[in-house]
Amino acid sequence: MNDRSTLERREFLKTTAVGLMAGSAAGLLTGNLALGQNSPAPPSPTQDQGESSGFNPLAEKGMPLEQQARTWRELTELEYDKQTVHPYTRCRIITMNGIEVAAAIFKHNMARHFDNPIVRERLALTRRIEQQQQKRVNGLVPANEHTLETTIGYEQVAVDLTAWLAQNEPDPHVKAALDFALLEDFDHLYRYANVLDMRRNGYMRPEMIVGRLTEIMPGRPTPVEHCHPLDSVRRWVDFSKASPQTLMNIMTIVAAEKQTMNFYMNVQNRAEDKVLRGLYNEIGLIEEQHVTHYESLMDPTCPLLKCAVMHELHECYMYYSFAEQEVDPVVKRLWEVNLDMEIGHLHDAVAMYKDFAKKDPAEFLPSSLPKPILFQSNIDYVRQILAEQVALTTKHTEYVNVAELPQDYRYFAWRSSVNGDWVPAGVAISNHIAQQGEDYRFAVAEHPVPAYRDRTSPSVDYPQQA
User: Fold this and answer.
1) Is the CB of residue 344 less than 8 Å from the CB of residue 316?
2) Among 21, 95, 136, 222, which is least packed, fewest CB within 10 Å?
C-alpha cells in the first residue's frame, strides 16, 4: 500500500467519481481474507448455472461514453495488499488486465484496416477508455509484489482459468485444445515456484500465493513442450455455428494467453540471474506457441465490424462474471463500474454495425450471456487430465502420443535445436534439489503419474522416457 493516511484514504473513497466503496483502509482490496490451509474459495455466482446467465447487457442502458473519462487519481490510487489479497481476486485482476489489453490492441488493428473516418474516430474514443480501464486494473498490483510472485499469479490464472473453460466447453475440438495446453501451464507454475522457493527472505512462499487452491508439481515437462511451429496451428471454429459459450471461451483464452506472452516478453530482462532469464525465455516461447494454438481456433472469416461487437460483448461477459463472484467489495465495485462502461461500448458497437454493415446484429448476438466464468479450485480435474494426457504432443492439427511419432518426425529435430545443451526448466529444478535435497511442491496426494513422483529428479522428459 502507499503512504496515504487512513483519513485521506477514506476521504478519497467517499469522493471518487465511481463511488468505490468506503471501509477500513487497512482492509482495502483484501476483503480481510487470510490465506492458508482453510483459505475460502470465492462464492458461486448467485444466478442459475445452466447454459445461460439470464443477463442481457443490451437490455441495460450502460454508462454514456461522454461520462466515462477518469482522472489520473482514479487510475492510480488503489493497490491490493499482496499478503492478504484472495488468490482468485489476484487472478481476476490479471485476467481482466489481459482482456483490456486485447480490446485495445484489437481496436488499433481494426483502425489500421478500416478506411471509414467515422468508424476510426469511434474506435479512438472507446479505445481510449479501454486504455484507462487497463491502467486502473493493472495498477491494482502493488509495487512490493516481486515480478516472480506476480508470475506465480499468472500461472495460477493459466491453470484454473483453462481448467474451468475446458470443463465448460461444449465443442470437443476446443476442449481438446484447452486440455492439451493446461498440462503445460501447470508445469510452468511448478518451474517458477521452484525458483521462487529458493528466495526466502522477503518473498512469499508459492503455496501461499496460490492459497493452496492450486497444486504445484510437474505437469507435461516444459523441455518436451516445444512443438514444431507447423504443428501449433489448429482447425478454426466457424463462429456462425458455435455456441455462445464456445465463442466466449475462445476469446477469453486467447486474450489471457496473449497477456501472459506479453508479460514474459517484457519482464525477461528484469530477472536477476541467468537461470530465471532463461526460464522466462523458454516458457515465453511456449506462450507464443500457446497463442498460436488458441488464436488459430478463431474464425478468420469474421468481419471486423462483427468482431468489434463480439469484443464488447466479451468484455461485458467477463466483467459480469467477475462482479458476480468477487469477494473483495472494492474490487467488486470496480468490476461493476467497468461493466456499466462496457455496456455503453457495446451499444456503440451495435450502432456502428447497423450503420456500416447495414445488418441487424440480432442475427448473431445471444439473447443472454452464457453462464459466468468461475475461478475455483480444479485439483481433481487437473489430476485426471495429467493421468490421461501427459504423454501427448501435436502432429499437424491433431494430438498424438509421443510414442506414436516416427523418430525422424520434425518435432524431435525442433526440440533438440532449441534445447541444445542447456535447458533452464531442468536447471531450475536441479538447483532446488542441490540446495534443499528435493524439488519444491505443494500437493494434496502423490503425483498421478508414477514417473514424476521422484522429488530428486528434475522431470524433464515424457513418462515413458523419464
Assistant:
1) no
2) 21
Q: Encode pLDDT of 22-69 as tens digits.
A: 332 333 443 333 223 333 333 333 333 347 889 999 999 999 999 999
What is the Cα–Cα distance from 193 to 198, expressed in whole angstroms? 9
Report the chain's C-alpha Rg in angstroms.
22
Q: What angle do CA 242, 248, 253 make, to 5 degrees?
A: 115
Residue 264 · residue 256 · CB < 8 Å: no
Grid coordinates representing 394 are: 501435436
Are 23 and 13 contacting, i.e. CB atoms less than 8 angstroms apart? Answer: yes
Nearby residues of 346 by Cβ (< 8 Å), 6 or more positions away: 57, 58, 62, 309, 312, 313, 315, 316
Q: What is the spatial distance between Cα 425 and Cα 27, in angstroms, rounded to a whole number?
A: 38
DSSP per-residue letters across 163-225: HHHHHT---HHHHHHHHHHHHHHHHHHHHHHHHHHT--TT---HHHHTTTSS-BS--S-GGG-
Are the CB atoms for 267 and 327 separated by under 8 Å?
A: no
Q: Which residue has the cell 516478453?
A: 265
DSSP 3-state helix, strand, coil percentages of the chain (rounded to 5)? Answer: 60, 5, 40
Distance (Å, whole) CA 44 – CA 25 = 27
pLDDT tens for each residue of 199-214 = 988 899 999 999 999 9
Paired with 110 in beta bridges are none
Q: In what helix (H) or strand (E) does residue 400 lie, and over which residues does it extend?
A: strand 398-401
Q: Helix or strand or coil: residue 331?
A: helix
